[in-house]
Amino acid sequence: MDLSLSEDQLTLRAAFAEFFDKESTLERVRAAEPLGFDQDLWTKLAGTGAVAMGLPEDAGGGGASALDLVLVAEQYGRRIAPVPFPEAAAAGHVLAQAGAADLIGGVADGSTLATIALSPAHDGRLRLVPAGAVARSSSRSTAIA
Predict the structure, then answer these.
(1) I need a labelling partner for 7 at 20 to 30 A (CA). Which of 17, 25, 141, 144 fits?
(2) How many domains does the chain have?
């Protein structure tokens, strides 16, 4: 069994290594504290198509595999990029699977920062919401079970 990466996967990894090397400098990471979020970097990352790449093609995404997303996330993590890429990729996948077509466009272009609550609300409050500090709640609340 050959588990080596394909040429396309090597190219993808190299492209995002270069992107994060250039855009997620130590100075930028430090400047993004205390929330760990840089809106300009998020906009640039969305512009690369990374945010939409894991969404199905019929939902405006790239139809990328889980391995492709992991390769991008690996480079994101190596640079401690101050953007919620894994959270948005996971939430976008859940929204696409749930058929939430009205939300997918904003997720795909990065204008909607989607995330997920990892546990149910307790006393009306959500706990442990990755990227929750930077995700803005919409005028309507959408719960997808």
Answers:
(1) 25
(2) 1
